[in-house]
Amino acid sequence: MRIVVLLALATALAACGGETETATAPPAQATTAAGASAVAGTTLDGEPISLDDFRGKPVFVNVWSSW
């Protein structure tokens, strides 16, 4: 039983050790989108809102869901 545990521990340590040299491509340059699709909806107050209302301003659209 001890041999199995020691073998598993040695394997785990060997997998974690040492850095390997890998050829990586340089990071891609950020690009700016040509334009976004028309998006419209209503605010929590019931007011209409459109993506066009924010033309020329940076907009962050959070599409994350936690359900």
What is the element layout, followed by pairings?
Blueprint lengths: L1 H15 L23 E3 L5 E3 L17
Antiparallel strand pairs: 1-2
H and E order: HEE
Overall helicity:
10-25%
The fraction of residues in strands falls at: 5-15%
Report how far apart the termini are: 44 Å
Strand segment tally: 2
Which structural class best describes the helix and strand composition? alpha+beta
Count the helices. How many?
1
Q: What is the gyration radius calculated from CA atoms? A: 26 Å
Outline? elongated
Average residue pLDDT: 80
Which regions are unreliable across 5 or more consecutive residues at pLDDT < 50?
none
Mind summarizing the main beta sheet?
Answer: 2 strands, antiparallel
* Strand order in the sheet with the most strands: 1-2
Description of the molecule:
The protein has 67 residues and is α+β, with helices and mostly antiparallel strands. Helices cover 22% and strands 9% of the residues. The chain is built from one helix and two strands, in the order αββ. It has a two-stranded antiparallel ribbon with strand order 1-2. The longest helix has 15 residues, at 2-16. The radius of gyration is 26 Å and the shape is elongated. The chain starts with a helix and ends in a 17-residue tail after the last strand. The model has no long low-confidence stretch (mean pLDDT 80).
